[in-house]
Amino acid sequence: MTRRSRSLLVPLAVVAALGLASCSTADAPAGSSSPSSSSSADAGVSGSITVFAAASLQKTFTTLGKAFELANPGASIEFSFAGSSDLVTQIQNGAPADVFASADEANMAKLSATDLASGSPEDFATNVLEIAVAPGNPKGITSLDDLTGSDVQLVTCAAPVPCGAATAKVESASGVDLQPVSEEQSVTDVLGKVESGQADAGLVYVTDVQGADGKVDGVPFDESSKAVNTYPIGVLKASEDPELAQAFSDYVRSATGQKVLTAAGFGKP
């Protein structure tokens, strides 16, 4: 029942092997047709943008950002990673951002409701929960029920965070009443507590377990299918470089971006 994690970050040495460095922004987003003219895309885009993205995207987006900059030498991308709900609050309070990528549709909807998003956000990935445990699974955890034992120190995400909302859904679907010793503001914080031994188990995403470089093992459970998180990405109205912001958003949804996301364990949108 226990699955050993694999690396989520695609090293730059692998970037070329995946064809990322040679790809331009002319890559068509997944599910769309190729542009009729690629002259402007072939020339590359330039400028600087800031991308606010869910914590669970840190490794994949860092890889995609580097590949995008290699394909567009005049472009520069800065990232801010945190829980999606925290990022929404920062944007609503005026934090400068050009692109927002959320780990769920609910937090993206909050921005759209306050007229901060430009156009319609596009879905680019899905993710499900998995139980992260210490290597070798010393507590012998095989199901959600095992997380209720008095000798198991469980950590989850707080309810406003997408992984916390997903946790509530699997609790409802399974009828299991989880009693975590702490609730964190991002999925990476949950993972960190398991990695450091501060917790015996944590509910994180499949991609987080895969990207933990062997510091945790993953225990899948059937109820995870009841809480599939869909990840949308969108350009923000306050962007000072909407062309570059849209180009990066398209890049994430392109065949190139999807290749990296799939290798990291994300599902198709």
Structure description:
The chain has 269 residues and is of the alpha/beta class. It has ten helices and eleven strands. It has helices spanning 12-17, 39-42, 58-71, 84-92, 105-113, 162-174, 187-195, 206-210, 242-253, 255-263, and strands spanning 3-4, 47-54, 75-82, 99-101, 117-127, 129-133, 154-157, 182-184, 201-205, 217-219, 229-236. The strands form two sheets. Strands 1-10-6-9-7-8 form a six-stranded mixed sheet. Strands 3-2-4-11-5 form a five-stranded mixed sheet. The chain is elongated. The relative contact order is 0.23.
Element layout with pairings:
Blueprint: E1 3-4, H1 12-17, H2 39-42, E2 47-54, H3 58-71, E3 75-82, H4 84-92, E4 99-101, H5 105-113, E5 117-127, E6 129-133, E7 154-157, H6 162-174, E8 182-184, H7 187-195, E9 201-205, H8 206-210, E10 217-219, E11 229-236, H9 242-253, H10 255-263
Parallel strand pairs: 2-3, 2-4, 7-8, 7-9
Antiparallel strand pairs: 1-10, 4-11, 5-11, 6-9, 6-10
Quote the average pLDDT. Answer: 88
Structural class: alpha/beta
As an assembly, this protein is single chain
**Share of β-strand residues:** 15-25%
Which descriptor suits the 3D outline? elongated
Q: Compute the number of helices.
A: 10
The main sheet comes to: 6 strands, mixed
Low-confidence stretches: 1-18, 21-26, 32-42
Radius of gyration: 19 Å
Number of strands: 11
